[in-house]
């Protein structure tokens, strides 16, 4: 079941991108974020919704606001570059919002890539940063390939284990094309992002039995049981291997928290100890290897080659990674972003509590 189906299968409304971004930004400013940081965070979340990735969109606003209110995430902290060595850097986030730290880290990676051909920035002391694709796509307009990965609270068991010892540790890679939509692979190393289970729980809908294990280790279709249990790794032991390696690159390399130093599901359940989340951001300057226009033309050809494969029975169209989201974004930018009415009502209640005018 796709995340967008959670929206289409319940009573919903359409909200223009600019209105939802303005509304979300106002909510973050109401709990102490400055205008620039609030705008960066709101843009990250609403863009995820625009692309149909609702699990990483404004459904996160209430939990982010709650964490900012109790200062377990700092609304005013500013990042600091603490190591800088030509093509690499290490950033200390000082417990700022992950979206804010992540943007500055990728900006720095791109700057380094322009000078050295590649830039790699490791981050510690950050927080949940939203959809990974957002950061990977930041460098596309500069004829670069963007890559990122991050760690999350422990919600997955190691292969063959039974308790939570790993996040689903998503990563993303974005590759520019000439006339086609860019290739954007954004995947958690679980069958689905846990946010989709949270969204199903919020909207009282069942989940497929290959999304999560209940606390007793058995597959479940109950979103609450799945939320209280563990996510299933994609591809069995291969998904476990990917999440383990992504955790090492994003967190052990940067000095961020990993394993027993992360509390279970701490975004939603731990409100006293900062997360100390780690990320990595990498930018590759295509011009350092090949003429960018030639590269992008060949990417177009590669995309067409995938599109033109003989279709299996019942398949109407073959996509490359990121294409469905790009098409969704174009449609919703024109028509408005489709939101469950229950989510809008939750934001209205939060707005009333914070003295913010609802934008819808």
Automatic annotation (TrEMBL):
One Gene Ontology term of the molecular function aspect: oxidoreductase activity
InterPro entries associated with the record: Mal/L-sulf/L-lact_DH-like_ah, Mal/L-sulf/L-lact_DH-like_NADP, Mal/L-sulfo/L-lacto_DH-like_sf, Malate/L-lactate_DH-like
Pfam families linked to this entry: Ldh_2 (PF02615)
Keywords: Oxidoreductase
The name this protein goes by in its record: Ldh family oxidoreductase
Origin: domain of life: Bacteria
Sequence similarity: Belongs to the LDH2/MDH2 oxidoreductase family.
């Amino acid at each position: 079941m796709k995340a967008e189906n959670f929206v289409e299968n319940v009573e919903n409304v359409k909200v223009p991108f600019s209105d939802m971004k303005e509304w979300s930004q106002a909510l973050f400013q109401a709990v102490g974020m400055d205008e620039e940081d609030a705008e960066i965070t709101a843009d990250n979340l609403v863009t995820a919704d625009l692309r149909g990735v609702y699990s990483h969109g404004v459904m996160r606003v209430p939990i982010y606001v709650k964490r900012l209110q109790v200062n377990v995430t700092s609304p005013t902290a500013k990042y600091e570059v603490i190591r800088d060595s030509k093509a690499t850097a290490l950033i200390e986030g000082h417990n700022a919002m992950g979206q804010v730290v992540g943007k500055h880290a990728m900006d720095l990676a791109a700057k380094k890539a322009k000078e050295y051909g590649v830039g790699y920035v490791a981050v510690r002391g950050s927080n949940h940063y939203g959809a990974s694709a957002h950061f990977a796509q930041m460098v596309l307009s500069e004829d670069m390939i963007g890559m990122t990965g991050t760690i999350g609270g422990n919600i997955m068991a190691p292969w063959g284990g039974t308790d939570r010892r790993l996040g689903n540790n998503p990563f993303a890679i974005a590759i520019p094309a000439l006339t086609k939509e860019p290739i954007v692979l954004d995947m958690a190393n679980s069958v689905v992002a846990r946010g989709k289970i949270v969204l199903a729980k919020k909207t009282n809908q069942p989940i497929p039995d290959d999304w999560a294990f209940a606390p007793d280790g058995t597959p479940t279709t109950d979103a609450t049981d799945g939320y209280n249990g563990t996510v299933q790794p994609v591809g069995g032991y291969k998904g476990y291997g990917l999440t383990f390696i992504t955790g090492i690159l994003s967190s052990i390399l940067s000095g961020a928290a990993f394993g027993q130093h992360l509390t279970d599901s701490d975004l939603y359940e731990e409100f006293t100890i900062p997360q100390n989340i780690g990320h990595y951001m990498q930018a590759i300057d295509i011009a350092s290897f090949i003429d960018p226009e030639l590269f992008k033309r060949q990417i177009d050809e590669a995309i067409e080659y995938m599109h033109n494969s003989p279709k299996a029975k019942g398949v109407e169209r073959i996509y490359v990674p990121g294409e469905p989201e790009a098409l969704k974004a174009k449609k919703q930018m024109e028509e408005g972003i489709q939101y469950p009415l229950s989510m809008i009502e939750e934001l209205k209640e939060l707005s009333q509590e914070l003295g913010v005018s609802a934008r819808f």
